């Protein structure tokens, strides 16, 4: 049976309806919460604090520091992951040699490296960069390698028959063919990094959304804490939409 694809506008309208429904349920649940501590978690209280926070310049300092760390971590992961993925995708021996090592390492939670990262790199941004890069590199490596393996062998044979150089084959055939898979890996990496970011920013840094949450918790301001969680969710959503846009623009 052929599956009929839903038009984009209709798909997105369902998504908006689902999001609206979620906030409606949150609002309704809040009307049944009795006076007291849990009133801090109602939608009205959270949104009021949310709008206060987005008017505060300090909030944007925390947002920028978190985004900067994410960009550095992703940049390191891309610089390592793409070349490694291209190598193991083209070389069966390299793939066989590294596959079990990579599978072993990627199953280790990045957060389990926190004590070692702090011990070696000290407190501050460096251990955060390491943890984010470690979290992001595996989907980039594996998706890049998978993209190389899916390159049409007939195109490669044709290129070799025309005496194309390795650089020309990489630029004209392999890279355009794997770009879509690289972007898939990048999207997965952003999702993982954005989750790892918050606990990573509790490693002795004095800014960032993770630190912001820790500070709100220490002040027992749980409405602000929940508002920061909303901000984290919105930024992560925007980053994901950005990569989807890149996929639509560049994927072949």
TrEMBL record:
Q: Coiled-coil annotation: which residues?
A: none
Where does it reside?
Cell membrane
User: PROSITE patterns, from UniProt?
Assistant: ABC_TM1 (PS50928)
Q: What is its main location?
A: membrane
* Pfam family membership, one: BPD_transp_1
Bilayer-crossing residues are: 12-33, 70-89, 101-122, 128-148, 173-197, 225-244
The reply to whether Transmembrane helix figures as a keyword in the UniProt entry is yes
Would you indicate the residue range of the signal peptide? Answer: none
Q: Locate the ABC transmembrane type-1 domain: which residues?
A: 63-243
Task: Cite the InterPro entries for this sequence.
Answer: MetI-like, MetI-like_sf
| Alphabetical keyword list | Cell membrane, Membrane, Transmembrane, Transmembrane helix, Transport
PANTHER family, per the entry: ALKANE SULFONATE ABC TRANSPORTER-RELATED, MEMBRANE SUBUNIT, TAURINE TRANSPORT SYSTEM PERMEASE PROTEIN TAUC
Q: What is the protein name stated in its UniProt record? A: ABC transporter permease
Q: Which lineage is the organism of this entry classified under, starting from the top rank?
A: Bacteria, Pseudomonadati, Pseudomonadota, Gammaproteobacteria, Moraxellales
